C-alpha cells in the first residue's frame, strides 16, 4: 500500500511536456510547433499534451489570440473576468499586451467624456471602453488599465508597443460601445450565479496524496489500511497512477491475508472528473451506494478522492450561502409568497406575469412545470430541512391559465423517507384545478 504520486516511475514524453508548460512564465504564448521542437517530440504528442494542459487550467486558447500559459483561477475570483475572457466575449482582436490577458479587471469605464474627466475614473486593473481616441488609449495604459477599442478601429504602433511594455492588453471589437458594455455586463452577472455552483475541484486537495493500493498488495494490506484510515474502500492504481479497480470490504470478505488485490478487486470502478458539480457527485454516490469516489483526469490518472461526508457537508454549506445573482427559476418564482391554508398545508400564491406567457397569451407549459418544481422544493426545505434531486415528473395540464391570473400551487407529500420522496402538486386559479403533477425525487442527506 502507498500514497499515489509517491512512486518514482519514469516520466513519459507527455508528462515532460506538461512539466515544461508548468515552468513557463504566466502570459507566455505556446505553440505546438515550438513545444515539439524544444522538447524533441512529435507535433501530435505536443498537441495532445497542450489540450490536456488546457483542460486542467494551465493554458487557455482563444480565437485570434492563441494559446497562453495562465494561472489557475481561484474560486473566490470566479466572478471577475480576465481581459482574455473579455476579448472572447466581444470577439476582440488583440493588438498588444498578450502577457496581461489573464489579469482580472474589477471594473470597466466607458470613455464618453473629455480626456481629463475620463482619467479620474481610470485606475489600475480597470478596462477603458472607447472609440478611435489614440490619446485616451495611451493615457489609460499609463495608468495601468487595459483598453477595448470599439467600432473596429485600430491604434498607433506606439500604443501597441506601450501595451506590450506594460503587460496590459489593448483590444479592438467591431461592436459599438453600448453593445460591448452590455455583453460584458451580462457575463459578469452570469459569473455571480456560477459562484454558488460548487465543483469537486473546490473540495479535493489534489496536492495531498490519497491512500491507495496496488495490484500486488495483499488482502492483509487492505485490512491494515482500513484499520488505520477508517475507510472501507480504496482505489487500486497501476505503476503510472491510473485507477484500474476499487478494493472494498466486500471484496476482502473471506479472503486470505496473502491473496493479492488484483485477484479480489472490483474492476472498472465508478470515477468522476474534477469539474463535475458536487450535486452530481452526491447523486452518483447515493445511487450506487458508495462512500468514497475516486477523482481522475481524462486519462483515468488518480487526482484524489472525495468521501460522501465531504459531499454532504459541502451541500449543507452551499445551501446556507446567500444568493448571488438571479437565475431564470429565481426570476419566475420572485412573485410567489408562501403561506398555510386552513388545513395547515403549505400553499404558494402568485400572479402569472406577461413574461411567463407563451405565444397564445396563456402561461407557458414549461414555466408551469418550473413553478410546480420550485413549490415542491421549497415545501421539502421547510418541512424536512433537506433538498432533493428530481428523478421523474408526470404532468397533467387540465386547462390553460391566462396571464395576470392569480394562481395557487399546493404541494402535498404522499410519501417521504430518508432516501426518497413522492409529491402530488396542484395548480389552481379562480376557476379551479388548472394543472397537476406527480413527482418522485431522491433526497440529499442533511
Automatic annotation (TrEMBL):
<protein>
    <recommendedName>
        <fullName>CBS domain-containing protein</fullName>
    </recommendedName>
</protein>
<dbReference type="InterPro" id="IPR006683">
    <property type="entry name" value="Thioestr_dom"/>
</dbReference>
<dbReference type="Pfam" id="PF03061">
    <property type="entry name" value="4HBT"/>
</dbReference>
<dbReference type="InterPro" id="IPR000644">
    <property type="entry name" value="CBS_dom"/>
</dbReference>
<dbReference type="InterPro" id="IPR029069">
    <property type="entry name" value="HotDog_dom_sf"/>
</dbReference>
<dbReference type="InterPro" id="IPR036388">
    <property type="entry name" value="WH-like_DNA-bd_sf"/>
</dbReference>
<dbReference type="InterPro" id="IPR028979">
    <property type="entry name" value="Ser_kin/Pase_Hpr-like_N_sf"/>
</dbReference>
<dbReference type="InterPro" id="IPR051257">
    <property type="entry name" value="Diverse_CBS-Domain"/>
</dbReference>
<feature type="domain" description="CBS">
    <location>
        <begin position="265"/>
        <end position="323"/>
    </location>
</feature>
<dbReference type="InterPro" id="IPR010766">
    <property type="entry name" value="DRTGG"/>
</dbReference>
<dbReference type="Pfam" id="PF07085">
    <property type="entry name" value="DRTGG"/>
</dbReference>
<feature type="domain" description="CBS">
    <location>
        <begin position="206"/>
        <end position="263"/>
    </location>
</feature>
<dbReference type="InterPro" id="IPR036390">
    <property type="entry name" value="WH_DNA-bd_sf"/>
</dbReference>
<dbReference type="Pfam" id="PF00571">
    <property type="entry name" value="CBS"/>
</dbReference>
<dbReference type="InterPro" id="IPR046342">
    <property type="entry name" value="CBS_dom_sf"/>
</dbReference>
<keyword id="KW-0129">CBS domain</keyword>
Amino acid at each position: 500500500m502507498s500514497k499515489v504520486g509517491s512512486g518514482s516511475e519514469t516520466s513519459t514524453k507527455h508528462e515532460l511536456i506538461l512539466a515544461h508548460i508548468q515552468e513557463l512564465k504566466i502570459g507566455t504564448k505556446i505553440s505546438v510547433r515550438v513545444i515539439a521542437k524544444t522538447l524533441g517530440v512529435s507535433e501530435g504528442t505536443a498537441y495532445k499534451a497542450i489540450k490536456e494542459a488546457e483542460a486542467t487550467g494551465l493554458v487557455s486558447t482563444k480565437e485570434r489570440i492563441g494559446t497562453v500559459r495562465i494561472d489557475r483561477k481561484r474560486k473566490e475570483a470566479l466572478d471577475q473576468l480576465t481581459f482574455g475572457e473579455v476579448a472572447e466575449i466581444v470577439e476582440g482582436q488583440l493588438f498588444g499586451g498578450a502577457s496581461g490577458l489573464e489579469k482580472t479587471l474589477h471594473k470597466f469605464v466607458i470613455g464618453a467624456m473629455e480626456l481629463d474627466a475620463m482619467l479620474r475614473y481610470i485606475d489600475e486593473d480597470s478596462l477603458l471602453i472607447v472609440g478611435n481616441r489614440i490619446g485616451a488609449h495611451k493615457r489609460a495604459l499609463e495608468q495601468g488599465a487595459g483598453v477595448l477599442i470599439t467600432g473596429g478601429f485600430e491604434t498607433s504602433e506606439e500604443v501597441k508597443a506601450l501595451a506590450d511594455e506594460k503587460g496590459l492588453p489593448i483590444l479592438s471589437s467591431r461592436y459599438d460601445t453600448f453593445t460591448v458594455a452590455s455583453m460584458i455586463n451580462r457575463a459578469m452577472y452570469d459569473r455571480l450565479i456560477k459562484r454558488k455552483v460548487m465543483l469537486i475541484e473546490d473540495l479535493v486537495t489534489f496536492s495531498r496524496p490519497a491512500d491507495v493500493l496496488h495490484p500486488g498488495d495483499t488482502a492483509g494490506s487492505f485490512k491494515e489500511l482500513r484499520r488505520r484510515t477508517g475507510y472501507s474502500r480504496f482505489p487500486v492504481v497501476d505503476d503510472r497512477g491510473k485507477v484500474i479497480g476499487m478494493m472494498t470490504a466486500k471484496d476482502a470478505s473471506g479472503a486470505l491475508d496473502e491473496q493479492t488485490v488484483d485477484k479480489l478487486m472490483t474492476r472498472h470502478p465508478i470515477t468522476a472528473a474534477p469539474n463535475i458539480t458536487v450535486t452530481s457527485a452526491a447523486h452518483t454516490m447515493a445511487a450506487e451506494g458508495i462512500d468514497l469516489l475516486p477523482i481522475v483526469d481524462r486519462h483515468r490518472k488518480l487526482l484524489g478522492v472525495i468521501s460522501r461526508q465531504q459531499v454532504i457537508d459541502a451541500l449543507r454549506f452551499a445551501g446556507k450561502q446567500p444568493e448571488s445573482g438571479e437565475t431564470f427559476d429565481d426570476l419566475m418564482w420572485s412573485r410567489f409568497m408562501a403561506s398555510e391554508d386552513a388545513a395547515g398545508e403549505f400553499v404558494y400564491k402568485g400572479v402569472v406575469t406577461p413574461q411567463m406567457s407563451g405565444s397564445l397569451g396563456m402561461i407557458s407549459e414549461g414555466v408551469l412545470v418550473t413553478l410546480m418544481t420550485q413549490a415542491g422544493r421549497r415545501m421539502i426545505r421547510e418541512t424536512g430541512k433537506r433538498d432533493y434531486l428530481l428523478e421523474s415528473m408526470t404532468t397533467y395540464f387540465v386547462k390553460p391559465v391566462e396571464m395576470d391570473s392569480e394562481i395557487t400551487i399546493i404541494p402535498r407529500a404522499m410519501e417521504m423517507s430518508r432516501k426518497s420522496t413522492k409529491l402530488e402538486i396542484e395548480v389552481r386559479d379562480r376557476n379551479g384545478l388548472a394543472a397537476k403533477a406527480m413527482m418522485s425525487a431522491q433526497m440529499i442527506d442533511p
